[in-house]
Amino acid sequence: MGPSASILETIAVVGDTHAHLQLALCMLARWQREIGTNFDAVFLCGDVGTFTDASQLDNATRRHAKSNPCELEFLQQWSTAPQAHWLDAIFAPTTSGGLGLACPVVMVHGNHEGFEHLERLAPKKRPADDVPLADLPAVDTNGHIRLLPTGWVARTRGGRRVAGVGGIQPGQRTARHHPMAYIQESAVESVLDAGPVDVLITHQGPTSVQFDAGSELLEPLADAGVARLWFHGHATPTRHITSVGPGGRCQVVPLGDLAFSGRGSQANDPGLEGWSYVRLGEPELHVVREAPPFWREYRRGNWSQTSDGQLICPDLVDFV
Fold it and tell me: Please, which residues bridge with residue 279 across strands?
């Protein structure tokens, strides 16, 4: 099976998490119960904050972490050995008291990551064949989150092809990043050579949608209409869903940050522009991009805090 496989699947895609993984995954687990449909996969559009050592932190993350401990959640909870035990409850079945997010969670990398960690996870040579989501390299200690390496094509259990390109356009940011933080031209070419895919996940959007905030290196993917659906995060001055490629057959879906902003009257609110899901298999795709209606229950003021300052999502407090 390839693009437009016949088995109906529902996937969720979210924007930049900046290590707010409890927030993202607990809300998605709740959302699937609210809509009465289990997700077959969850995709994260980069800036996951996959730091495994304090020495890897970039200046922006250090600055935000001073007022928002969630910026260090991956470092302090997901990458530890042993991993924070309450996180397993997110993925445990509801029949045993868990939250029931029993599907692959897959990320592409952004420009705020622990690159010394990520670059060790994937072989340099891209595989010739599509890789099952379950076979992608594990990012966290317990293997709940998988990395879709840049330029690779993976396959869902229902046969959908999902490609990923991580990083940002070189030269757009004054901050100095690890070389892996920048889009590789070879990764773009690899996706083009792989042929049509159902879903493309990138960190940055193309210039045809995001203009000066987009990436010129990604533009060949837009020109070719390589995917039915293209989700991206990073900078999204243009928020509307845009059709690109021959006949407008590719829908580009920009997604905002999920993180608590830490500023202003909405400082304790989750980011509301980064949530989406779509059912794959219908003749006409309908993307739901909206904040889950229960988001107010996940305001930072409702979270608990451990003795060492780590924040715990309300849904996980009983497991701590």
Answer: 10
Q: What does the block give as tokens for 245?
A: 């490629």
CA distance 120 to 115: 8
Residue 82: count other Cβ atoms within 10 Å of its Cβ: 7
Please tell me whether the overall predicted TM-score, pTM, comes out greater than 0.90 for this model. yes
Q: Which tokens go with 113?
A: 């990551």
Say if residue 123 is preceded by a cis peptide, omega within 30 of 0. no
Q: Is the pLDDT of residue 5 over 70?
A: no
Q: Measured between alpha carbons, how far is 183 from 72 in angstroms, rounded to an integer? A: 25
Q: Which of 88, 190, 196 is nearest to 142 (CA)?
A: 88
What is the average pLDDT value for the chain, to the nearest integer?
95
Phi-psi region of 19 (alpha: psi -120 to 50; beta: other; left: phi over 0): left
The C-alpha angle 53, 61, 299, rounded to 5 degrees, equals 110
Q: How many angstroms separate the CA atoms of 52 and 43, rounded?
A: 21
Alpha helix segments (H runs only) across 86-200: 88-91, 115-118, 185-193
Q: Put the strands of the sheet holding 250-254 in their side by side order.
A: 131-132, 153-155, 161-165, 197-202, 227-232, 250-254, 242-244
Mean pLDDT of 11-21: 98
pLDDT digits (tens, 9 = 90+) for 198-227: 999 999 999 999 999 999 999 999 999 999
On whether the CB atoms of residues 130 and 155 are closer than 8 A, the answer is yes
Question: By C-alpha distance, which of 135, 130, 91, 69 is closest to 268?
Answer: 69
Region for 167 from its dihedrals, namely left if φ exceeds 0, alpha if ψ lies in -120 to 50, beta otherwise = left
Distance CA 198, CA 8 (A): 13
Q: How confident is the model at residue 261 (pLDDT cuts 50, 70, 90)?
A: confident
Amino acid at 102: A
Q: Which residues pair with 277 in a beta bridge?
A: 12, 288
